[in-house]
Amino acid sequence: MECFSRPMFPLLLIVLLLDCRERRVEVSYPFYLDYIENPQAVNLRACSDQGCVGIEGLPGESGYGNGPHAVAAGANRAFIAVEQKQIGKDDGPSTYYYFARRFDPKAGGVAHPDIVGPLSAQDFFARKAEIGLPDLTVKP
To answer: DSSP secondary-structure letter at 64?
Structure first.
């Protein structure tokens, strides 16, 4: 058992601790920026003690492809909003989505939202001023 000698133990502990980093960032309960396997594939998800689920109707990449991923999100009392970019194209244009915050106890909490988007930056910021969409201050 020489391959698991004492000098190797601190290195193994560091590797395990790095792998256990938090992967969820709270936007506003129960909404989080989260990823499944690929840390570049962050998306807005509704999370509970049972786990996280994608938001129905919101485009997202859960694997290793080149789909959209969240780069920012925000919430206020009325709305949840998210900014997305294509994976690998962070210097490219953003698309924006938002939905009204609703709670449905019969559905186990979060109601299936009516997603508005994709919106261009110009359209999103015009709607933000018009109806009071949240600032996109939460980053993954």
So the answer is: S
